[in-house]
Amino acid sequence: MPTIDQIRAARALIGWSQGDLADQSGLSQTGIARIENGTNQPNSTTIEKIRNAFDKADVEFIGTTGVKKRSGEIRTLRGRTGFRDFMDDVYEVARTVGGEICLYNANPANWNKYLGEDWYITHSERMQEFRDNFDFKVSVNEGEGQFIGKDFVEYRWFPKEIFNQQSFYAYGDRLAFLNFTDTDILINVVRNQDFADGFRALFNIAWKHVSVKP
After folding, report:
1. Has residue 170 been placed in a domain?
2. Which residues are paired to 76 by β-bridges?
3. In terms of DSSP H, where are the helices of 66-187?
4. CB–CB of 179/186 below 8 Å?
5. What is the pTM of this model?
6. What domain range includes position 190?
7. CATH number of the domain where residue 41 is located
8. Is residue 214 included in any domain, yes or no?
């Protein structure tokens, strides 16, 4: 987790005030001030919000002392807040760019667990509004019966022996890698059209020759 010095340095790097960080993280300016002066020990949820706020501003923490601006095309998101930010990005691409969206190795239980059922219902409703913009294909474990996005997604079963808790998501010019554990989620998003298109090509081969309609 970022240290107090790293939080201060990250703000200075991008010219944020404590109020700016509070606005971007959904915390109070007083709470940020207390964290930075050492009078308040933040919990993991608070740190996650701060980290994700800086991540959206392309700021990375290095070890326990450094910070830097992200120079590449890879974005890292963590935890429930990061997952929701990721799904917001999927929605924006679906709404504005559309095209083919491919999700491999989806476990609907993970979406409900880390997003919350109410949040996902809201997401589903907004995706349905732009259903004509995109073609959304999702592969799930053979025998899966929970199709939470059935109103805007086509589902197919993939064999149990190739299913695990790592999901791959191609949308627009992005290819995302989602790693779920019992207690956390880590998402790496690579923004590269060739990678995204290459994954779609492989996905569609498997979709045509390996998958089975439920």
Report:
1. yes
2. 188
3. 79-96, 108-115, 117-129
4. yes
5. 0.71
6. 75-209
7. 1.10.260.40
8. no
| Domain count across the chain | 2
**Positive or negative: CA dihedral 94, 24, 188, 141:** negative
> Is the per-residue pLDDT at 72 higher than 80?
no
Cα–Cα distance for residue pair 31/148, rounded to 1 Å? 37
Final residue before a domain boundary, out of 43, 71, 99:
71
Task: Report the pLDDT value the prediction gives residue 9, as an integer from 0 to 100.
Answer: 93
Q: Report how far residue 200's alpha carbon sits from residue 186's, in angstroms, rounded to the nearest whole number.
A: 22
Residue 56: predicted pLDDT:
81
> What is the end-to-end Cα distance of the chain in Å, rounded?
43
Using CA of residue 96, residue 79, residue 75, residue 5, what is the dihedral sign?
positive
Rounded-to-integer distance, Cα 99 and Cα 132, Å:
10
Distance CA 157, CA 76 (A): 29
Residue 55 pLDDT greater than 90, yes or no: no
Tracing tokens 């239980």 back to the chain, one arrives at: 109
> Degrees (nearest 5) of the Cα angle 136, 141, 147?
50
Pick the last residue of a domain from 71, 101, 116: 71
Residues 38 and 92 in one domain: no
Q: Which of 94, 88, 202, 203 is nearest to 138 (CA)?
A: 203
Q: Are residues 87 and 156 in the same domain?
A: yes
**What is the per-residue pLDDT for 168?**
97
pLDDT averaged over the chain? Answer: 92
